[in-house]
Amino acid sequence: MSDIQKLEALVIQVRRDILRQVHKVNSGHPGGSLGCAEFFVALYQEVMDRKEEFSMDGKDEDLFFLSNGHISPVFYSVLARSGYFPVEELNTFRLLNSRLQGHPTTHEGLPGIRMASGSLGQGISVAIGAAQVKKLNNDNHLVYVLCGDGELQEGQNWEAIMYAAGNKVDNLIVSIDLNGQQIDGSTDTVLPMGNIQGKFEAFGWDVINIEKGNDLEAILSGMKTAKAKTGNGKPICVLLHTVMGNGVDFMMHTHAWHGKAPNDEQLEDALSQNPETLGDY
């Protein structure tokens, strides 16, 4: 297989992992997780310069922070499939005393998790702090963070966005999962945010659009462009145009599966659309 075919095979397996995790405990957030499968696979397999040995300080490597922590199923799957912890541990998702809580936490010591998230709006602030520490340490690596589009309705984001540009935090790449959906409906219905690109640019950021946010080659190309723009005095925003529930036809283009688990019949249907590629856990 070509490199891109290997990545695509991993994406399909990650989709299966997401569906099976959420179904087993009848709890979790499959919609946004499925929509970001390609992004996470690209990020951890190709984009980031990361060490195989995990350490909380993250010195001399790129860092990633998940702000919209409810999409933990995709995060856990990609971390496990990237060697951070045994894939079999995905069986413990959302169980009592599991390291794989519904929203990522740090006190269980799960490799790959550097911040607790789930209380929305905080990820950019944390990432800015980490990016500034890297500058103080003369560490030329980058800091990445992913936010949901509905999450931008939280005011703390805009304080952080203003701060990052004002302080030339140019080793930071913030990606926005622009799927147009949130828990109570479309973002335009709940609270229209207008021109997000225009807002970031008005705050002094460079903005890149990845129009095909569920296409691996488009993501890899877009993130390469984003990386090339770092170090020029401006933080970088990537608008990742995704489809919620991507890869499962009855979950796509709707907020209905934001936080809803499939039943047995729905799981069978969803898995039939994503045949096993790398082995289920």
Note the topology.
Blueprint: H1 3-25, H2 30-35, H3 37-47, E1 63-66, H4 72-81, H5 123-136, E2 143-148, H6 155-166, E3 172-178, E4 181-182, E5 185-186, H7 187-190, H8 196-202, E6 206-210, H9 216-229, E7 236-241, H10 264-272
Parallel strand pairs: 1-2, 2-3, 3-7, 6-7
Antiparallel strand pairs: 4-5
Helix pairs in contact: 1-3, 1-4, 1-10, 3-4, 3-9, 5-6
| Order of secondary-structure elements | HHHEHHEHEEEHHEHEH
Radius of gyration: 18 Å
Total beta strand runs: 7
**Arrangement of strands in the largest sheet:** 1-2-3-7-6
Indicate the overall shape. Answer: globular
Distance from first to last alpha carbon:
22 Å
**Structural class by helix and strand composition:** alpha/beta
Number of helices in the DSSP assignment: 10
What is this entry, summarized?
With 281 residues, the protein is an alpha/beta fold. It has ten helices and seven strands. Helix 6 links the parallel strand 2 and strand 3.
